[in-house]
Amino acid sequence: MQRFIRFPEALKLLGIGRSTAYRKIKTDPTFPKPVKILGEGTKPSAFVEAEIAAYQAARIAERDEASA
Fold first, then answer.
1. In the chain, how many domains are there?
2. Dihedral sign, CA of 28, 8, 3, 57?
3. What is the pLDDT of residues 48-67, one digit of tens each?
4. Which of 3, 14, 59, 68, by CA, is between 20 and 30 Å from 52?
5. Angle at 54 between CA 37 and CA 24, to 5 degrees
6. What is the 3-state secondary structure (H, E, C) of 28-53?
């Protein structure tokens, strides 16, 4: 089962600020994209927790490959 997490919790997990997150959403194709949780044309959105974890794992793998 997938779990949605709201923006503030995603920021804490990622260790980044709001403006950095918005910039990454627009410019980084590997960064998790928010999902509208109430349908089109609505404001509430959230991130998929598993996508946040996968993004973090990929960053760790990049670090490990670079230091090898």
1. 1
2. positive
3. 999 999 999 999 999 998 88
4. 68
5. 70
6. CCCCCCCEECCCCCCCCEEEEHHHHH
